Design the sequence.
DNA sequence: CTGAAAGCGCTTACAG
DNA sequence: CTGAAAGCGCTTACAG
């Protein structure tokens, strides 16, 4: 197991140097020798030992990926996109789950830096407020790319969704349908995407001369079906004549729909409900829930592309310039807002 | 970036050998020296370079995982279990998607062997019928563990679900509820778990003196909602007085429910439908679908445990003996079979 | 066009 | 109890 350069060299009566160069297509090796070596290497299925090569090249062809919540379907679609591109370019992906914990996120970053991965992709945990570990990556040999849950305070390449616009569109849609009192089940106060979606909601109200009322807003910590149910119940207790509800995740919207169904509140006749993320369950529940589709797969692809570009710049000793890619989103209309 | 042993040795006026041994707690280093070295290493945050260490230890602390379908929620729960245990034991996980392709599966195995991962966990692609690549793993330095979709033809450790029993239970439940003509939307003919679940269906019929009728069985290639819809439609066209349907995946069951709802066929009044896998959508749809819960998280944990045990045996030069762990399953009763 | 030599950062058998 | 030396498998600057 594990043929070495030396063995091949011996077999072919050339030096290890020549074998190494031939396999890397160096221009100072004769075509005839290259052919001979390449053919033999192919025949015996030789693959250079990556760990040994790293010691010289400083490249592992490994990427570290930190996802905040491994149960979130959205991230799998992102992962699928990344994996497709990684495969094409001979990279392998180490997957990590920060479990929404800042501390664990920091430890995982340390482990990945220590593994000398060529790049680290992170979607931040909900409660990450200190960014020392991200700056550590920026000072390491690994490229850093943030996706989906990012921070304005870190200067690196990013792939995000236009969350403000999305919050706006979801809210505007309810207004267009005739809703007068639109509530909002929003996410926590920290991550940028939660902030932005909420801004979108406010901005839509403002633009349509609706009064913004904090009583209509509830904050969900976990963004679960349970949370959605509970918060909707609380909103209805206030008797505010709610006739629209913008939920900033599909699980929250499903919880809201469940509460309404159990309490005989008609959807969309009495209240229109809109979700976000376009997970499968949103289309399967009765009534199907209007949602906003994020191009998750595309997000994965773009993240990899940004990374590959940075690697190329690095190789050519060009100064890497950080970019932010903003992805499109699409309102998927269903019965819950008909 | 990247402090080395040598630098630490120089700083502390000892040899690199001593530093290496102290950090590994060798017994032939004095306590006082160990203390000094460990403290310093901790202070400066020294971590040995894994790639360089590999060259001597032949261990990468890396595990390769091949999943056949990255969009399947089941595998994410498995992954979550694996990740939890991996983290505890300082392993990192390289994730790969075979996309149900035997060819890609073979390539990924090659890549992982080449990466010198300590272990490879695979859930086989649906159409994998040749096992040369698995035998290659068995002859390599990496341990092989199959989970969920395995094969009797490969001799290695495995973690599986008692699929036969599960098929049996789902079918028996419908019989107990009074169904007389029970159909079956089954999976493809190859993977072991599809074969076994189908056997469970047949065995339950037999045990209850029901006549087995191939007309009542439809084979789904993709196990999707669409497939479920289409196949259910076809079954109903045959006018066999179907009053029960055992589906060997939740998406299939959801498709079946959709067809029935759209065509005014009452569930469970006219037909009872049972799924498998207990995905979220199964509980969210109206009516909620009875399903069988697989202990996915547990499967991930057990797979890791089996692997860790093998590593330990290897280290102690004990002959590794392959084990098969069979996990429990549980029928989750819901309205669709009430 | 080819190859000897140094070195990446570690571990471990061996000597003292 | 400590350390010099060899070697893991590669790449690349340098010499010829």
Sequence:
């Amino acid at each position: 197991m594990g043929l070495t350069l030396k063995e091949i060299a011996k077999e072919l009566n050339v030096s290890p140097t020549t074998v190494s160069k031939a396999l890397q297509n160096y221009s100072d090796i004769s075509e005839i020798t290259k052919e001979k070596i390449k053919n033999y290497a192919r025949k015996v299925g030789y693959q250079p030992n990556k760990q040994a090569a790293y010691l010289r090249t400083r490249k592992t062809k490994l990427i570290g990926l930190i996802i905040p919540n491994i149960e979130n379907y959205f991230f799998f679609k992102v992962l699928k996109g990344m994996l497709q591109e990684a495969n094409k370019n001979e990279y392998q992906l180490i997957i990590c789950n920060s479990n929404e914990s800042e501390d664990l996120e920091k430890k995982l970053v340390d482990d990945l830096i220590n593994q000398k991965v060529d790049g680290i992709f992170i979607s931040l945990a909900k409660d990450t407020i200190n960014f020392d570990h991200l700056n550590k990556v920026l000072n390491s040999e690994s490229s850093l790319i943030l996706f989906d849950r990012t921070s304005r305070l870190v200067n690196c390449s990013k792939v995000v969704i236009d969350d403000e616009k999305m919050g706006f569109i979801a809210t505007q849609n309810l207004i267009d349908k005739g809703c007068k009192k639109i509530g909002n089940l929003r996410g926590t106060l920290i991550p940028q995407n939660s902030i932005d979606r909420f801004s979108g909601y406010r901005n839509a109200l403002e633009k349509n001369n609706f009064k913004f009322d904090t009583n209509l807003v509830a904050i969900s910590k976990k963004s679960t079906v349970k949370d959605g149910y509970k918060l909707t119940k609380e909103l209805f207790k206030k008797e505010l004549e709610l006739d629209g509800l913008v939920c900033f995740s599909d699980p929250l919207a499903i919880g809201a729909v469940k509460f309404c169904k159990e309490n005989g509140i008609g959807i969309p006749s009495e209240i229109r409900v809109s979700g976000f993320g376009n997970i499968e369950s949103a289309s399967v529940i009765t009534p199907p829930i209007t949602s906003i589709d994020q191009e998750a797969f595309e997000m994965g692809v773009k993240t990899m592309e940004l990374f590959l570009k940075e690697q190329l710049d690095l190789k050519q000793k060009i100064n890497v310039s950080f970019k932010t890619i903003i992805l499109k989103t699409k309102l998927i209309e269903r019965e819950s807002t008909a």
In short: Residues 14-18, 21, 28-30, 33, 52, 54-58 of chain B lie near DNA strand D (CB under 10 Å from a C1').
